[in-house]
Amino acid sequence: MKNTLRLHAAAKRLALLLLVLSPLTVLAHTSLSSSVPADKQTVVAASQLSLQFSGPLRLMSLTLTDASGKDIALNFKRSSAAQSRFEVLIAVPLPAGAYQAAWMGMGEDGHRMEGAFSFVVDPNAAATDAKAHSAKTALHFSGLEHPAAKAVTEFHAALKAADASAVKRLLAEDVIIFEGGSVERSRAEYESHHMAADMAFLKDLSVATIEHHVRVQGDSAVSLARSKVSGQFKDKSIDHTGMETMTLQLRGGNWQITHIHWSK
To answer: Domain map of the chain by residue range?
Structure first.
């Protein structure tokens, strides 16, 4: 009898302990750390949604609705592998108004999570935000109106679009490329080795430039950039910040890339 009473008491203590600890278990699951636009933020315009989670998950659904509940088209594709950052383009321009983004994800342990954030689009907010935006832009972006900078952005676009002729046009014949501990010492060597692999890698990934400076002196220029790279490649989750240094020279009236150093 005493043993039975002890067992019942132990069972009650265990049940109480599980009840107390269960909220902590729920809180341990992945959550939305930040978003762009941020929750309750007023923005001048929005062309994409960026979601940063506290850990990897599979984003199963993402919807955007206006104040009347009407769905706004997104270029969203359900993720097949877990990752911590997602960037989804908004398929149509957003008029002024209030919007809500709702998401649902699956953790690596199969746990379902969901949440939402809201924001307001107000073109008139530009007047109050202009000063702060200008200061931030100057801090992270400079010299991008120069033709040398345009050559760099054209090269990025050509590589992502797998436009081999444009890539070769923008690379100097004697370009030297450092990447992942290896070196390629000519345009021809890059074309026959890593160019196709770089194009395949970038094809379906999201690349967002977070800082870019171009300094020009005479017929020479230096480009310094940081980019956020995320998405899926060969069933592998990609989420890292890439660093890029380029040197360029003005040759025959055209800016060509003479050196690239890629790292992460």
So the answer is: 32-133, 143-263
Interatomic CA distance for residues 88 and 77, integer angstroms: 9
Instruction: Domain 32-133: give its CATH code.
Output: 2.60.40.1220
Each residue's pLDDT tens digit, 2-37: 444 454 555 455 444 444 333 333 334 678 888 999
Side chain identity, residue 257: I
Instruction: Write the pLDDT tens digit of every residue in 97-155.
Output: 999 999 999 987 788 999 999 999 998 876 555 556 555 566 788 888 899 999 998 99
CATH 2.40.50.140 fits 143-263, yes or no: no
